[in-house]
Amino acid sequence: MRWELMTSPALGKAARDLGVCVLGLGVLERHSEHLPLGTDYLNVHRICCLAAEREPAVVFPPFYFGQIYEARCFPGAVTLRPTLLLDLLQSVLDEIGRNGFQKIILQNGHGGNNGLNQFLVQSALWEQKPYTLYLHSPRRTPESAARRAEILDPALGGHAGASETSVTLANVPEGVDSDAVPQHEGETLGRLDHLSDGFTALNWYANYPEHYQGVAAAGTAEAGRALVEMSVEGLARFIAAAKADTVAPGLQDEFFGREAGLRDGS
After folding, report:
1. Which one of 28, 98, 179, 251 counts the least CB within 10 Å of its CB?
2. What confidence score (pLDDT) does residue 266 get?
């Protein structure tokens, strides 16, 4: 069920009956010269919608504000001031909760959001909310890695590489400029390898200044459909698990009860 396509009464009923809303997190950024700026949010929203068809949940409208400061040097990137970004994300979560959803699942569609998402979820311990926040973080098991390798050689993947090109060909074929698909590999330049034990804001740019990693020409719609199926399966399972979960909400109440007792001196 897509939030933006539902009537007001229907959304209210879904909040009461299902209680779960899924928020796909993407950005607007350069993906080499052949993929659309909206690649991340378009793909993650599609995956969320397909998963919610299998395990009923409400999917929040396409969301494309995230951490993508490393792409500010390219046309089309849209970034927000860091403090505004955090406020926006928290406000959106609170609005979902205000609409009656007791559980919110974050599904990430952009690698640059990883740190932001974890911080956002950890921040849920700052103030008690009427909802429980979950971040779907699929683990790479030997089985899942082998399945992915059967679909597409992992070495060909990467940002705007074979895997992302394949998924976009499957989900948004009209957004792919087939004439602009690079025939060369987006190799790691390693310009900050002398700081291998550290991290700077320029790490990604130092390695991939054209925002291209992997081998895009190896991407196919067939491989994309198989990769999408894996993601949809995993997210649908997680939606079902979150629906049935009573432990995390109980622990949340326990935690804030102890925190209140600490403040009250009880």
Report:
1. 179
2. 65
- Report the domain count for the chain: 1
User: Does residue 264 sit within a domain?
Assistant: no
Beta-sheet pairing, 20-25 with 103-108: parallel
Report how far Cα 73 is from the mean position of its chain's Cα atoms: 23
- What is the DSSP secondary structure assignment for residue 104, as one 8-state letter? E
Token pair of 229 as six digits: 């199926």
Classify residue 105: in a domain, yes or no: yes
What pairs with residue 33 in β-bridges? 31
Question: How far is Cα 243 from Cα 181, in angstroms, rounded to an integer?
Answer: 41
Parent domain of 89 = 3-248
For residue range 162-195, what is the model confidence (pLDDT) as tens digits? 999 999 999 999 999 999 999 999 999 999 999 9
pTM for the model: 0.95
* CATH code (residue 146): 3.40.50.10310
Residues 65-99 pLDDT 10s: 999 999 999 999 999 999 999 999 999 999 999 99
Is 191 a member of any domain? yes
CA 12 → CA 7, 50, 51, distances in Å?
9, 21, 21
Sign (positive or negative) of CA dihedral 145, 151, 154, 159: negative
Which of 40, 39, 37 lies closest to 26 in space, CA to CA? 40
